[in-house]
Amino acid sequence: MRVFRGRYRRQIALIAAALLLTVSATVLLGRDVAQAGPGAAPSAVLGSGIGGTVQRVQVLSETTAATTSSAVWVNLASMVVVVPAEERAMFLMRFSGESSCAGGVGAQWCRLRMRIAGAEANPVVGGDFAFDSTDNGSESFASWESHAIERYSRIMGPGTYRVEVQWQVTDPAVRFRLDDWTFVVERVQIISP
Length: 193
Ligand SMILES: [Ca+2]
Description:
By secondary structure, this protein is mostly beta strands.
C-alpha cells in the first residue's frame, strides 16, 4: 500500500471502453430508503419496475492514490457515455475503492457524488452523503477502508453525456484520500416504460 504524499498524479487506465454484453439482464429499481447519515432525509420512492438490457459497460480504474481537502466539489474521474439514436437508456453507475478520511474537529465527513451532464444522479442528496467519515475525529490518515457508492440516471434519450465522479470534504482541515478505485457505468436499454 502506498501513501500518497506528492502532487496529484492521475493516470487513469481505460480497462474496457466498449464491453458489449450479449447476455440479457433485467434491471429492477425498487424502493430506495434513505439511511441514517449526516442530516438524514426521510425515506422516498425514487424508481420502480424498469426492465431493460445491458448494452454497454464502461470501466475506469486507478491505482495511484490522490487526496483532496477541497470544500467545494472537484472532479475525480469522468467518462463519456453515448446513447444511440432511437434508444432510451438508464445509466447504472458504481464507484468503489480504498478510502481514508481524517482531520478537522468534531463530526466531519468526506463526500462523493456522481453527475450526468452536470446534474446530480439519483438519489439526489447534495452534500448529505458521506462516502467516508472521520468518525468524529477518531480516525487517522492510515484508517484505510473499502467504500462504495451506487447511483442511477433518469431515462436518457439519444445523445452524448459526460458522467462525472466528484469529491469534497466538509472542512478544509479534513484530508480525503482515495486509492485503487473502480468506476463502472452500465448503459441499460429501456424496453418498456
Ligand atoms: Ca473512515
